[in-house]
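Researcher: Please predict.
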Amino acid sequence: MVGRFWTFTIDPARASDFERLANDEALPLAQAGMGCVAVFALRGAVGGHYAWLTFWVSRRALAVALASPEWKALEKSFASLGASLEQDRATSYETVGVFLAGERAAGHRPGGGND
């Protein structure tokens, strides 16, 4: 799995526009089967600060999504609010470990033993 992390500073007067864009356009696009498995649109404690954390099934799925006309349109929408979804403005990560709520880590057994 590949993670991509963007940060944005938005004019606080446009924050509601940015949040609406994230919820009404960005999240549905990610749900449309582009290989994105999760998106976290996060608001910082300081007004106008946001982060967008996306998770993709593979680097290839991410590359295909970023090259799509839908993503290009989303980039324009974000740019109209002073935010950039350009590749060089994000940090990429690859999964080295996973924890999902309600699951135990592999190799761990109750009582201190390992599998």
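Model: Helices lie at 15-31, 59-67, 69-79.
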